[in-house]
Amino acid sequence: MTSITRRGLLGAAATLPLAAPALAAFPEQPIRVVVPWNAGGLADVVIRALAPAMSGPLGQPVVIENRPGANGAVGTQAVARAAPDGHTLILANAETHAINPLIYPKLAYNPVSDFTPVTLIARGPFVLLTRPGFGTDSLDSFLARVRAEPGKVTFASWGIGSTSHLAMESLIKQAKLQMLHVPFTGAAPASTALAAGQVDAMFLNAGPAEAIARDGKVRILGVGAPERIPLLPETPTMAELGQPVSAGNWFGLLAPARLVMPIAERLSAVAAEGLKVPAVLNVFRSQAALPVTTRPEEMRSFIAEDRANWANVVRDLNIQLE
């Protein structure tokens, strides 16, 4: 993780004397982090673990507000319109700042000009799951059944154009399959439907997937990561199984545009320290979430690169929404 020292932070503030009073007074009230997804998903879990570790150093509560809708666009748009004083942040991910701009021609926010990057906090791989009683115990048998019932096997996601949706569409294209997409409003309701047998398969974050698989409610077939992960050491990667689908997501904090850089740097530094707290790390490990932090400008570059990568996927799949 990137380390930001107190001396370096104060030095940065000294180069911006007009911003120094704002930094000295910040924060003046609780900091609100908008999670543009339902409660219970990985995004919600990781930020709720990190929030208490940030509250102490900041001297103000860090409160979480769930505002789901439109593949994360509803909550993201609300933050874009908030005051740029550091007291309102968005927990962004690939959907909100890389994919939505590619699939929604009338998106109500600009992912670049409407936000000030703060820091990444986590990255995490997806796994491919099947419902209880689906009758397949390997990726090969899963593919065979889908091919035997073209267009009848269903898969869940947390929205059209979500990373979960695009991951499955990538497998469908690569393996020449036909499946029926059933979008939900979030990862939690989608995985609940899978565990209840209402849909047949989905790509889900590895941590929540391991929790429901542990109870025997679903079966994990493969990991969409370059290598096996510690949480599921016996589960092969999709590449090992002959279908190299890369599937995962990232999570990070952004503020409205025009936030002064010393405040963005301070928030980044506090998040970095929070990710060293053992209790926070334990939650992240249990969710197969890799803690990762960046300086604000590093995060800006990361998002731009991620958007370029997803542009290739969206173009190949020809996904466009109103």
Q: Strands, helices and their partners?
A:
Layout: H1 6-14, H2 20-25, E1 31-35, H3 42-58, E2 62-66, H4 73-80, E3 88-93, H5 94-103, E4 115-130, H6 139-148, E5 154-157, H7 163-175, E6 180-183, H8 187-195, E7 201-205, H9 206-214, E8 219-223, E9 248-256, H10 261-274, H11 278-286, E10 290-291, H12 296-317
Parallel strand pairs: 1-2, 1-3, 5-6, 5-7
Antiparallel strand pairs: 3-9, 4-7, 4-8, 4-9, 4-10
Explain what this protein looks like in three dimensions.
The protein folds into 2 domains: 6-124 and 249-317, Bordetella uptake gene, domain 1 (D-Maltodextrin-Binding Protein, domain 2); 126-223, Periplasmic binding protein-like II (D-Maltodextrin-Binding Protein, domain 2, 3-Layer(aba) Sandwich). The protein is an alpha/beta fold and 322 residues long. The chain contains 12 helices and 10 strands. Residues 1-16 have low confidence and may be disordered. Strands 1, 2, 3, 4, 5, 6, 7, 8, 9 and 10 form a 10-stranded mixed sheet that branches.
Q: What is the overall pLDDT average?
A: 90
Q: Can you tell me the residue ranges where pLDDT is under 50 for at least 5 consecutive residues?
A: 1-16
Look at the structure and name the CATH superfamily of the largest domain: Bordetella uptake gene, domain 1
Radius of gyration (Å): 20 Å
Q: Quickly count the helices.
A: 12
Q: Give the overall shape, derived from the CA principal axes.
A: globular
Secondary-structure element sequence? HHEHEHEHEHEHEHEHEEHHEH
Query: What's the assembly state of these chains?
Result: single chain
Describe the biggest sheet?
10 strands, mixed
Proportion of residues in extended strands: 15-25%
CATH architecture assignment name of the largest domain = 3-Layer(aba) Sandwich
Annotated CATH topology of the largest domain: D-Maltodextrin-Binding Protein, domain 2
Distance between the termini: 38 Å
Helix content, binned percent: 40-55%
Query: How many beta-strand segments?
Result: 10
CATH class of the largest domain: Alpha Beta
The structural class is: alpha/beta
Pfam family, one: TctC
Signal peptide: 1-24
Protein name: Tripartite-type tricarboxylate transporter receptor subunit TctC
Keywords: Receptor, Signal
